[in-house]
Design brief:
Elements lengths: L1 H47 L7 H42 L9 E4 L9 E9 L10 E8 L4 E5 L6 H8 L4 E10 L14 E2 H6 L6 H10 L3 H5 L8 E2 L15 E4 L11 E6 L2 E6 L1 H7 L2 H21 L3 H5 L11 H5 L3 H17 L16 H11 L1 H34 L7 H46 L3 H6 L2 H43 L3 H46 L1 H6 L3 H45 L1
Parallel strand pairs: 1-5, 4-8, 4-9
Antiparallel strand pairs: 2-3, 2-5, 6-7, 9-10
Helix pairs in contact: 1-2, 1-14, 12-14, 13-14, 13-16, 14-16, 16-17, 17-19
GO molecular function: ABC-type transporter activity; ATP binding; ATP hydrolysis activity
Keywords: ATP-binding, Membrane, Nucleotide-binding, Transmembrane, Transmembrane helix, Transport
GO cellular component, one term: membrane
Length: 632
C-alpha cells in the first residue's frame, strides 16, 4: 500500500513540477516586461530625435508608469491560471449537480393506521442502480407482501440481489416499473455498522430526546448493558467508527433479514429466495425443505460446506493457540461474554483499558497550539528542502535584487549627465548596452532563483509526505480509534497542499519583501540622509503593528486549520451513513450540522482575511509617509 501511494505521489509531484515550470516562465516574463519596455522605450525616445534628452523627469516618471503596468500584467497572468482551474472545477461540479437525484416517490409511505394491512408491499417491482431505463434490471418483477410483526428472511447466493432488495425498500434504487408500499416507520441496520464520532448515548438516540425509561428498554433489548458496564464512562463514553455495534433481537416489528448464512433463517416467519434479481421461492422453512427445490439444494450445499469447515477447525490444536495468551478473567463474566460476539467482547476489554487513562474520552480533541513557531519547524522544512538548494535560491534572489538596484543607479547616473550638462557624455550605445546587460542579468538571476525554489519545494514536499505516510500506515489501531478520519484527511490533503504550493510562494514573497525593503531604504538614505531621522519613528510604529498582528494572524491560521478538520470528518461520516440517514429521515438535521461546521470554519477564515486588510491599511499608511518624507 505504501509503495502504491508513493507511486501516485510521484506522479502528482511530476505534475506539480510542470506547473512550477510554466509559472516560473510566466513570472520571469512578467518581471522582465517592465525592464524590457523601459529599455526599448528609452532607446526609441533617444534615437528618434537628437533633441530628446533622457532627463530624470522623463526617465523616472516613465519608469514609474511602466511599473504600474506590471501589476495588472501579473494579475492577468494569475487570473488566466485561476480561470483554467475554475473551468476544470466547474466541469466537475456540473457533473455532480446534474446527477440524478433519489426519487422520493419510489416508495409509497403511509402511516400505520390499519393494522390489518401488510407493512411492506412489492408489486411487479423492477429496479436498477443505473437510473436508466435502457440498463438491465437488478431486481425483476418482485412480488412480496410482509405482514405486520413478521420476520422475513431473504436468502440467496452472492450477487443474487439480497442487498439490492433492502436498498429498493429504502428508496435507494432507480425504479423501472411496479410499486413499493411501506406503512409505518423504518429501522435500518446496515451490513457494515455506521457509528458517529460521539458518545454511545448520542449514537443510540440519533438526534431524539432522551427518555430514560425507553432508553433502558433499548439497552436491554440490544443486550448492551454488559458492554456499557465495561466502559469507564458508560454510555457517556465517546466512541469512534465501528467501535460498538447494536446487536440483539428487535421484537414486535416487521423485520426483513438479508443473509447468505442459512443458520439464521429457521426462526423466520417467511423465507424469500432470490436468484439473478428475481424471487424464485417464498415460504416457510419446513415447506421449502419439503419441496426439495432451490432452497433445499442451497441448504444442502451450505450444510456440507459448514461440515467441512468444522472438520478443518477441529484439526487445529486449541491448546497451541492459547498457550502464549495470559488472560485473567472473573469466571462470573464468562456467561455474559459467551452471549456476545467475540469481536465485541474483545473490543470492550481493550476500550476499558484504554479509557481508564483518558477519563473515558476516546476521541481526542485537536489541540490548538499558541505562541510563536519554533525555530526547529523552520529548520525541519529547510532540511527537507535541502540546505544547498535553499542557499542557492537566496543567493540568486539577492543577486536579482542587487542588479535591480544597480540598474536604477545606472539610470540615475545616465540622467544626471543631462542635468549637469557634461561635455564628455557616455555614448548612447554604452548607456543602453550596460542598462540592458544589467536587466538581462537581473532577469536571469530571477528565473534561476525560481527554478531553485521549485526544486527545493519539490524536495520538501516529498521528504515531508513520505515519513507522514510511513508513520500513518504503521500507527496502532488506538490512533485511528481516537483520531477522526477528517483530521487525518486534513493533514494528508490541505496541509500537504500548503507544503506543495503555498509555502514556496510564501518564502518567495518573504524574500522579495525583505530585499525590496532593504534596497529601497538604502537608496533613500543614500540620496536623502536626513530621512534617517524620520525612519526611526516609522520603524517603531511598524514594530508595534508587527507585534500585534503576527501573533493574531498566526493563531487565526491555527484556528482555521483546526476548524477545517470537522468539515472533512462530518462529510466523510455523512457519506458513509447516507443510506442510514435517509432511512431514518435525518437529512435535514445532517444538512444543518454540515452548515454549522462550515460556518465555524468561515468565521475563522473571515477573521483571518479581515486581519490581513487591517495590516494592509496600516502598511499603506506607513508607505505613504515614507514617500512623503523622501520627497521633502
Amino acid at each position: 500500500m505504501e509503495q502504491l501511494i508513493d507511486q501516485i505521489r510521484q506522479k502528482e509531484l511530476l505534475l506539480i513540477r510542470k506547473a512550477y515550470l510554466v509559472r516560473n516562465v510566466i513570472d520571469s516574463l512578467n518581471t522582465a516586461s517592465a525592464f524590457m519596455v523601459a529599455l526599448f522605450s528609452f532607446a526609441a525616445y533617444m534615437l528618434s530625435s537628437s533633441s530628446h534628452e533622457l532627463t530624470p523627469q522623463v526617465a523616472f516618471v516613465s519608469l514609474t508608469l511602466f511599473m504600474q503596468l506590471r501589476a495588472p500584467m501579473v494579475i492577468i497572468a494569475m487570473l488566466i491560471g485561476q480561470m483554467v482551474q475554475a473551468v476544470v472545477s466547474n466541469k466537475r461540479l456540473k457533473q455532480y449537480f446534474i446527477a440524478d437525484e433519489l426519487d422520493s416517490s419510489t416508495v409509497e409511505r403511509h402511516p400505520l393506521h390499519n393494522a390489518t394491512k401488510d407493512a411492506v408491499e412489492f408489486e411487479d417491482f423492477s429496479a436498477t442502480w443505473d437510473y436508466n431505463e435502457s440498463s438491465p434490471s437488478t431486481l425483476q418483477n418482485i412480488n412480496l407482501n410482509a405482514a405486520r410483526g413478521t420476520l422475513i428472511a431473504v436468502v440467496g447466493k452472492v450477487g443474487s440481489g439480497k442487498s439490492s432488495l433492502l436498498s429498493a425498500l429504502l428508496g435507494e434504487m432507480g425504479k423501472l416499473r411496479g410499486r413499493i408500499g411501506l406503512r409505518g416507520k423504518v429501522a435500518y441496520v446496515p451490513q457494515l455498522p455506521w457509528i458517529q464520532n460521539m458518545t454511545v448515548r448520542d449514537n443510540i438516540l440519533f438526534g431524539k430526546p432522551f427518555d430514560k425509561h425507553r432508553y433502558s428498554q433499548v439497552l436491554s433489548a440490544c443486550t448492551l448493558k454488559a458492554d456499557l458496564r465495561s466502559l469507564a464512562n458508560g454510555d457517556m463514553t465517546e466512541i469512534g467508527e465501528k467501535v460498538l455495534g447494536p446487536h440483539g433481537l428487535i421484537r414486535q416489528k416487521t423485520r426483513i433479514l438479508v443473509t447468505h448464512r442459512l443458520s439464521y433463517v429457521k426462526q423466520a416467519d417467511e423465507i424469500v429466495v432470490l436468484g439473478d434479481g428475481q424471487i424464485i421461492e417464498i415460504g416457510r422453512y419446513n415447506d421449502l425443505m419439503e419441496k426439495c427445490d432451490v432452497f433445499a439444494k442451497f441448504v444442502s450445499e451450505y450444510s456440507s460446506k459448514s461440515k467441512d469447515d468444522e472438520e478443518d477447525d477441529d484439526s487445529i490444536d486449541d491448546v497451541s493457540l492459547l498457550e502464549n495468551v495470559d488472560v485473567d478473567m472473573d469466571k462470573s463474566n464468562l456467561s455474559n461474554l459467551s452471549k456476545s460476539p467475540v469481536r465485541n467482547s474483545t473490543s470492550s476489554i481493550q476500550f476499558s483499558h484504554m479509557l481508564n487513562e483518558d477519563g473515558g474520552q476516546l476521541i481526542k480533541k485537536e489541540l490548538v497550539k499558541s505562541g510563536h513557531v519554533k525555530l526547529s519547524v523552520y529548520h525541519l522544512y529547510l532540511k527537507a528542502a535541502s540546505y544547498w538548494i535553499s542557499f542557492l535560491f537566496f543567493s540568486l534572489y539577492s543577486g536579482f535584487q542587487m542588479f535591480n538596484v544597480l540598474r536604477m543607479f545606472w539610470l540615475s547616473a545616465w540622467t544626471d549627465e543631462y542635468v549637469d550638462y557634461h561635455e564628455n557624455r557616455t555614448s548612447l550605445g554604452v548607456r543602453l548596452g550596460v542598462y540592458g546587460g544589467l536587466g538581462i542579468i537581473e532577469s536571469t538571476c530571477y528565473f534561476l532563483s525560481l527554478v531553485c525554489l521549485a526544486f527545493a519545494a519539490l524536495s520538501a514536499s516529498y521528504n515531508l509526505h513520505a515519513p507522514l505516510l510511513h508513520n500513518l500506515l504503521r500507527s496502532p489501531m488506538s490512533f485511528f480509534d481516537t483520531t477522526p478520519l477528517g483530521r487525518i484527511l486534513n493533514r494528508c490533503a490541505k496541509d500537504i497542499e500548503v507544503v506543495d504550493i503555498f509555502l514556496p510562494l510564501d518564502f518567495r514573497y518573504l524574500g522579495l519583501c525583505i530585499l525590496q525593503l532593504l534596497s529601497t531604504l538604502t537608496i533613500i538614505v543614500i540620496s536623502t540622509p536626513i530621512f534617517v531621522v524620520v525612519l526611526v519613528p516609522l520603524a517603531i510604529i511598524y514594530y508595534f503593528f508587527l507585534r500585534f498582528y503576527v501573533p493574531t494572524s498566526r493563531q487565526l491560521k491555527r484556528l482555521e486549520s483546526t476548524h477545517r478538520s470537522p468539515i472533512y470528518s462530518h462529510f466523510s461520516e455523512t457519506i458513509q451513513g447516507a443510506a442510514t440517514i435517509r432511512a431514518f429521515n435525518k437529512v435535514e438535521e445532517f444538512r444543518n450540522a454540515s452548515g454549522n461546521v462550515v460556518d465555524a470554519f468561515i468565521k475563522c477564515r473571515y477573521s483571518n482575511v479581515v486581519s490581513n486588510r487591517w495590516l494592509a491599511i496600516r502598511l499603506e499608511f506607513i508607505g505613504n509617509l515614507v514617500v512623503c518624507d523622501s520627497l521633502k
